[in-house]
Amino acid sequence: MRECQNFIRVLLITFVPLELKGAGTSNLCNQLVSFLSEKPVIKLEVCALAQTEKISDFGSWHYATFRGLPLKFLTDISPSMILYVLKRQRNCDRILIIGTCWTTTVIALLLRFISPHIKIVQIPLIHKDFIFRDPFAKLLYELKKWMIYLFNFKLVQPILIVFSREEGIMVKPFVRNVIIRPLGIDLKSIIRKATLIKRELTHQTPREKLILLHIGEISRNKFPIFALEVVRSLKELVGDKVKLIAVGRIRERHYKKLREYIKRYNLENVITFTGLVPEDKLLKYWLDANVYVLFSKSESGPFTVLEAMAMGVPVVATRTGIIPELEEKGMLFAVRYGDVEGMVTKILRLWKDEILRNYMTRKTRSELPKYDVKYFLETVYQELIS
Above 70 in pLDDT, residue 114? Predict the structure, then answer.
């Protein structure tokens, strides 16, 4: 018989080390750990699939990291992590899973039979339409994806918390209970950054310059060739007035392909890839930007868009993740992926029309409080304690 207790024991499983700071999954994991650690009713333990294997103490909670298998299509399965969870499962009341992979599938299936009393809450980070040049790689990826969906969701039937309606539609056939709640942003932190920017407004880039800002990984999904076609069209229309600053981790193989197109389109003096930058430099880029652009084919969020709005920078984005919802509310301009002409037209309209920019800024200012991350964190917390 289990001993009486006045707290709920939660095991959080993720696939990035907590030491990694940034956007996306790493930011979500750090926010959740900080939020749940402060709740007296929660006793937290964290497992992560990373490049090391160790167990560390952080006062009221533990943090263990594990290696995955060194195989191309099975790097996301970790026998040592599965064994660790099975050893600890008797000490758990809830398991919170961030992401979907072979390891979580195996863990969820085993817990279904070994410890059906454990409540599983999952936050799947789902992207669709990944592109593989190798047909065999594409086949293996699709097989793995659908096996994970089928076994992880349909048989185990966890509670899924997803970021957008698009994701909700994707997972609905496979799940017992899906909750749609946009992740949101830390408004207090963003407002602090925006305040710093406003203090520097005397140094703002003249409006006659069209400075586009993109923040995100330089990869096939987030910065496709489509982005270069947009910039090329803008250059043909406004000449040297247009510049694009692309901030984010660079994937070398894709970057090499981009450089070939940049040379072909004669865009060497138009596009700047900065890599990862410190916050003070990023603030300078926000200060200079006229329009924030999102070129992604698929996203879970994307939350840099909300950050741009909080900074007072108007947005033109592809319709992915929560973008259609923000578009319906009049908070940004959106286009379908690959619509070069549509994106160019809307960028130029935002750049030239000051009345429109001011209207959109007021609109986003009134709607943004609904997208504070605290609502997402509270949703997760309520599911864990219910």
Answer: yes
